[in-house]
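Why does this matter for the project? Reviewers at the last site visit asked to see concrete outputs rather than summary tables. In response, this paragraph embeds two records directly. Each consists of the residue sequence and, immediately after it, the corresponding structure tokens. Nothing has been edited or filtered.
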Amino acid sequence: MTIPLADDVFRAPGVELFDFPPLWEGAPYWLTKPVVLAVGGALVVCALAWAAFARPTLVPRGMQNAGELVYLFVRDQVARPFLGKDAERWMPLLLSLFCLILLWNFIGVVPGLQFPVNAHIAFPIVFALVAYVIKIYLGIRHQGLAGYFKNLMFPPGLPKLLALTLYAPLELLYTFVTAPFTHAVRLFANMFAGHLLLAFFSAAGFWLLHEQPSLVGAPVGVLSVAVAVAMTAFEMFIQFLQAFLFTLLTAMYIGASLHPEH
């Protein structure tokens, strides 16, 4: 997070916070801070998974105990409600997705790093496209091409004319455009907005208390710092919630393709 400074005028942080040049002059254009944080976060998730499950014991302790708690949470709160008997089969994907998104989000409140990877739209788009491709593939594989579109466009009990003229176009638009778009943007927008708010209150407190201290501005500066601290705690809750919701929707899409009758 970059704190904007000025001699006598406060400049609120803006979208420039999300514009990262290459790490050094002459580096590839794609080699930026978010990419390094993304790769580092993925390696951390792999290391934690190895530490938790490489040598499992009958009585879990330490990292294994923590890993099993996360596994049980994803299995019972995300996978089983939508996948039923297929939950265990899809747990590697869902657990990896949840842990990686959560860690990438939490990087936004780590001092010195302070940028949630998913505040860069490219990363949520990749996650959403993976979920989307799996959803369409499973739907066609388990229902057949004709059966998939029939179940999608003509639900039982709905008059054919109404389905053809109103329901089918809306459902096609939702399935192939709206659903993957909102799946990605929901995660991105929350991380983007949260990072911007934290940057604003942190910058305001720094400017009022350090750059331009005054008797009038000091109370506002203290308030800004207090709000930044409170917002950090709230942002961590939002970061967890968005990881949970993204994984939950992925499980719901997979379950709908595997079991269209539900």
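We now turn to the second protein, recorded in exactly the same manner.
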Amino acid sequence: MLADHFPLVGLRLTTPRLELRLPTPEELADLADVAAAGIHDPAVMPFLVPWTDRPLADVARSVILHHWLRLGGWTPQAWSLNLTVFREGQVVGLQTIGASDLAVTRTVSTGSWLGRTHQGKGIGTEMRAAVLDLAFTGLGAEEAVSGAFDHNVTSYGVSRKLGYVDDGTKRHAVGGKLAVERRLRLTRADWERHRKIPVTIEGLTPCLPLLGAS
């Protein structure tokens, strides 16, 4: 079985409304369709790499290629886990968690996107809470970091709701224009104080060596 060689296919995170896991090939195609249907206002770019500015077919294909790229380049020392987010069996978005030298740094980073038709319903908060529980409860992390451009008030609001605090800024050139990123950091203590969403983690133990957390 595939799980015998790559146990991350058996990892499941569940919250009251959501399930997060690696997708099947057909579900990956559904995820690509969600991205192509739109995940943000076209007039505002929330990503450092403006991958959503391309033709719709390219946007969809880039989701698939990025998924394969992250799995193909996997090492326990440096990894990025792209979990597809499901609500009532329907693909709604993507939640990423990653780390470098986790056993030493005890730090993870997160990123995400959500189909526009699913926004404004608290799903973004719930899916981030799921991977934070994986980080702090499952992997023994001490800190989680994230970031959002200063115009991305929704992402910033999710972070603050979950206990993140400001951690400086960084200036980027995106599409030839200045974009200021607001860095955010969440400690274990702040996560515990703000933890409200119940999360169930299944299939983690055999994944720990691949996540650099054994």
